[in-house]
Design brief:
- By secondary structure, the chain is α+β, with helices and mostly antiparallel strands.
- Helices cover 23% and strands 19% of the residues.
- A four-stranded antiparallel beta sheet has the order 1-2-3-4, with no helix packed on it.
- Strand 1 and strand 2 form a beta hairpin.
- The longest helix is centred in the N-terminal third of the chain and has 31 residues.
- It is flat and about 95 Å long.
- It starts with 14 loop residues before the first helix and ends in a 38-residue tail after the last strand.
- About 4% of the residues have low confidence.
C-alpha cells in the first residue's frame, strides 16, 4: 500500500452493542404504546355534561365564605403565640352524630402543637383547645410531637428511642 493513500476504514458492526440496547428499546416501545392506550382509554371514559349535572345535583347551593374556618392566628386562650394554623382534619366520634371535631396544628416559632375545635354546623368552630403540646424535658414529646422542627430540644441530647409493646421493630 502506498504511504500517501488514505486508509479505508470499515465500520465495525458490533452485535454485542445492539444486543445490549435491545431490551431498552423494547421497553421504550412498550412504554410509548402503553401511554398512548392509557390516553385513549381516559378520553373514552370522560363523562358527558348530562352525567356530570346528575352527579353534582346534590352538591349545588353551596355558599362561598371568604373568611377561613380556622384563621391563621387562631388566638386560643393560653396559646395566643401560636400562628400559621394548618393541616385541618374534620371527623366525628362514634355516639356523637350531631357534633364534628377538627384537629389542626399551629406554630409558635419553636415548634408545632396540635389543637382541636368542635362544631355542629361545620362552619362555626367553638371550644378550641390544646390536643397535644410540648412534653416535659426528657420525654419523647419534648419539643413537640411528630414535628420536624425541634427548636425546644437540646440538640446535643438525642431523643430517647420508644419501643411499642408487642412491636420490637419499632
Amino acid at each position: 500500500m502506498h504511504q500517501d493513500a488514505p486508509a479505508i476504514v470499515k465500520p465495525a458492526f458490533n452485535r454485542l452493542a445492539i444486543s445490549q440496547r435491545l431490551p431498552f428499546l423494547v421497553a421504550l416501545l412498550l412504554a410509548t404504546v402503553g401511554r398512548l392506550q392509557a390516553a385513549e382509554s381516559t378520553a373514552a371514559r370522560d363523562p358527558d355534561r348530562e352525567t356530570v349535572a346528575k352527579w353534582s345535583a346534590p352538591y349545588r347551593g353551596w355558599h362561598y365564605r371568604p373568611e377561613h374556618v380556622i384563621p391563621a392566628e387562631p388566638n386560643i386562650p393560653g396559646y395566643e403565640q401560636f400562628r400559621n394554623a394548618d393541616c385541618p382534619c374534620v371527623y366525628q366520634l362514634p355516639g356523637q352524630p350531631d357534633k364534628w371535631f377538627m384537629s389542626f396544628i399551629a406554630f409558635d416559632g419553636h415548634g408545632y402543637n396540635s389543637f382541636v375545635a368542635e362544631s355542629t354546623n361545620l362552619v362555626q368552630w367553638t371550644h378550641p383547645r390544646l390536643a397535644m403540646g410540648f412534653g416535659p424535658p426528657g420525654e419523647f414529646d419534648f419539643g413537640g410531637c411528630g414535628t420536624a422542627l425541634q427548636g425546644r430540644r437540646q440538640p446535643e441530647r438525642p431523643r430517647p428511642a420508644i419501643r411499642a409493646q408487642g412491636f420490637p421493630g419499632l
